[in-house]
Structures are given as structure tokens and as C-alpha cells.
Amino acid sequence: DINWESGNCPSGDGAVTLGYKSSASGTYSSVTGGKSNRATNIYASVSGGLYNTASGEYSSISGGNFNVASGLYSSVTGGLDNRATNNYASVSGGRDNAASGLYSSISAGNSNVAS
């Protein structure tokens, strides 16, 4: 059910949703703060920020804005418009970075690609 005051929607089995206008639709997924964040796969999580999407299995986003973690066990720690799109990929911060290779990692910076 939607919490009508906050607009949150925890629809996955065992899912938790906090923040504002956020959704946790994956099994055991969570959104624990921020606005308009989504956790859409099993054990995916978003801790805060704005318009972040954790869609990979076991993926996580700690914060920032407009970040995506779509690979298996992928993560984005923060920043703006960062993407971790392959399995085990990570972006720690910065802006417009893309970790698209298997096990790839970007620490920070602007418009970096690790493929």
C-alpha cells in the first residue's frame, strides 16, 4: 500500500520504503531516505539522495542525484549522474561517470569511463 502522505510504495516482499515519493519493489529491497528513489530488484537498496535507481540484484546507492546501479552487486556511493552498469562495478563519486566493465571501478572525477 502507498503511504499517501509521503507517496512511498514498498511493494516487494519484505521491502522497506522511507523518504518521499520513493518505491522499493524488489524482494527485500529498501529505500531509507531521500526523494523519488527506486530499489527494484532483490536486496537492492538506496540510502538517500534524489532520483536514484538501484535495479541490479544486490545493488546499492548511498546517495547523490540521478545515479543508477544496474549490475549484479554494483554500487554508486554518491555524486551526480553516475552509472554502475555491469556486475560488481562501482562508482565512488564525481559526475557523469560510467563503470560499464565487469569488476570496473571509478573513484571520482568527471565523465570517466571504466569498461
Characteristic terms for this protein:
about 120 residues, mainly beta, 8-stranded parallel β-sheet, 7-stranded parallel β-sheet
Would you kindly provide a written description of the structure presented here, covering whatever features stand out?
The protein is mostly beta strands. It is built from no helices and 15 strands. The protein has an eight-stranded parallel beta sheet with strand order 1-3-5-7-9-11-13-15, with no helix packed on it.
- Category by helix and strand content: mainly beta
What Rg, in angstroms, do the CA atoms define? 13 Å
Poorly predicted runs are none
- The backbone outline, from C-alpha atoms, is flat
Mean pLDDT across residues: 93
Query: What's the helix count?
Result: 0
Please give the alpha-carbon distance between the first and last residues: 40 Å
Number of strands: 15
Largest sheet: 8 strands, parallel
Order of strands in the sheet with most strands: 1-3-5-7-9-11-13-15
What helical percentage do the residues reach?
A: under 10%
Give the helices and strands as they follow along the chain: EEEEEEEEEEEEEEE
Beta-strand residue fraction: 25-35%
SSE layout:
Blueprint: E1 9-10, E2 16-20, E3 23-24, E4 30-35, E5 38-39, E6 45-46, E7 53-54, E8 60-61, E9 68-69, E10 75-76, E11 83-84, E12 90-91, E13 98-99, E14 105-106, E15 113-114
Parallel strand pairs: 1-3, 2-4, 3-5, 4-6, 5-7, 6-8, 7-9, 8-10, 9-11, 10-12, 11-13, 12-14, 13-15
